[in-house]
Design goal:
The chain is of the alpha+beta class and 325 residues long. The chain has a domain of 164 residues: CO dehydrogenase flavoprotein, C-terminal domain (Enolase-like, domain 1). 29% of the residues lie in helices and 19% in strands. It is built from eleven helices and eleven strands. Helix 2 links the parallel strand 2 and strand 3. The chain is globular and about 60 Å long. The termini are far apart. Bound molecules: flavin-adenine dinucleotide and iron/sulfur cluster. The site of iron/sulfur cluster has 14 residues, from loops.
């Protein structure tokens, strides 16, 4: 299918990008941000919610800054994999998609990835044949195909790999937009709706991520389930980090992805586990609690029951470096 025509804007600074976005917003014109385009352009080719304007962030040099604790949104996944940042993030970056996609795909695009659903990531003809769905309804007021009779919420799945790894390291996300700049903990960035996806307001975009210096003291691991190891999106993913002390561990974080509309940091479950931590047995209990808490729906390749079971397995695997037998 042909990509629908759009006007392409190429700002060279954050200020210019904000000014273009403000002007389009004030004129009532629709637009999307584009970074590497590995997610946006396939959607456009399938005529999924394509906009008349696309603003590229690719020429904004300051967004390519890449240091241990400061990762620009325009840093590519390939650069991230081989760069100076935390080993947990480097490992996750190296598992995303394929070598080719990692050369173009960026950190910002990965964190703002559109949510996915097998009723939605299809060609226009395919979607027309099922009379559309709520997320791209072509003005038909079509219902959600996964959970029908509730036209207010989309439960499409967030299938990005970086977010859970950055969450367990205490990352902050930094945004710029017409109302100025703001920052928040990464786990506060996501919104539990497959259409809204995150807290970004119209005209706002991600400029960079920062990690606290103390993240150096955290060890961690990331485990994911996917159909083909060569390039598929995660069907479930678990990131874990911990800080050791003489008697075991004193900090513990677990985050999941690819099972809900948002990646999720599990503070409640991990603080209970930490209080009574005794290594392998506690990890098993925590893994079971994570399985119970996360509720995938039937909209990706593997069935939800299998993905939930695998969350337990992945959590145990991700934590296996936190004790010595
Ligand atoms: C075959 C295939 C396999 C894949 N496998 C994986 C995988 O295993 N794991 C995984 O995580 N991803 C996977 N992806 C998805 C994607 O390639 C990556 O997530 C990539 O990092 C997206 O980055 P991008 O720069 O190309 O995003 P883009 O396509 O440019 O943008 C993605 C979305 O984010 C928005 N956006 C981009 N940058 C910003 C910004 N700075 N601020 C605000 N909004 C922004 C865009 O408007 C768009 O909605 C796969 C994609 C394909 C095609
Ligand atoms: S979850 Fe429902 S509304 Fe969202 S993309 Fe899937 S079918 Fe459409």
């Amino acid at each position: 299918m042909k990509t629908p025509p759009f006007k392409f804007h190429r700002p060279k600074s954050i200020e210019e990008a904000v000014s273009i976005a403000s002007e389009l917003k004030n004129n009532g014109d629709s637009f999307d941000w584009i970074s590497g385009g590995t997610d946006l352009l396939p959607n456009y080719k399938w005529h999924i919610n394509a906009k008349k304007n696309v603003i590229s962030l690719a020429n904004i040099e300051v967004m390519k800054t890449h240091e241990s604790y400061h990762i620009g949104a325009m840093v590519s996944l390939h650069e991230l994999e081989h760069g100076p940042t935390h080993p947990l993030i480097r490992k996750a970056a190296g598992t995303i998609a394929s070598t080719l996609i990692r050369r173009s795909g960026t950190v910002g695009g990965n964190l703002c990835l559109d949510t996915r659903c097998f009723w939605y990531n299809q060609t226009e003809d395919w979607r027309r044949s099922i009379d559309w769905c709520h997320k791209c309804d072509c003005d038909t007021e079509a219902d959600c195909r996964v959970i029908p009779n509730q036209n207010t919420l989309c439960v499409a799945t967030y299938q990005g790999d970086l977010a859970p790894c950055m969450m367990v390291l205490g990352a902050k996300i930094h945004l710029a937009g017409p109302e100025g700049q703001r920052s928040m903990k990464l786990d506060e960035f996501y919104a539990l709706d497959g259409m809204k996806r995150n807290v970004l307001e119209v005209g706002e975009f991600v400029t960079h991520i920062t990690l606290p210096i103390e993240s150096d003291q955290l060890e961690g691991d990331y485990q994911k389930l996917r159909l083909r190891e060569s390039w598929d999106f995660p069907e479930a993913g678990v990131a874990a980090s911990w800080k050791r002390n003489d008697s075991g561990i004193e900090q513990l974080y677990v985050a999941t992805t690819a099972c809900e509309s948002i990646p999720r940091l599990h503070m409640e479950e991990t603080s209970v586990a930490l209080n009574e931590w005794n290594g392998k047995e506690s990890a098993k209990k925590l893994a079971e609690n994570i399985r119970k808490t996360v509720k995938p729906v039937n909209n990706t390749y593997f069935p939800p029951a299998y993905r939930r079971k695998m969350l337990r397995v992945l959590t145990k695997r991700a934590l296996s470096g936190s004790w010595s037998d």
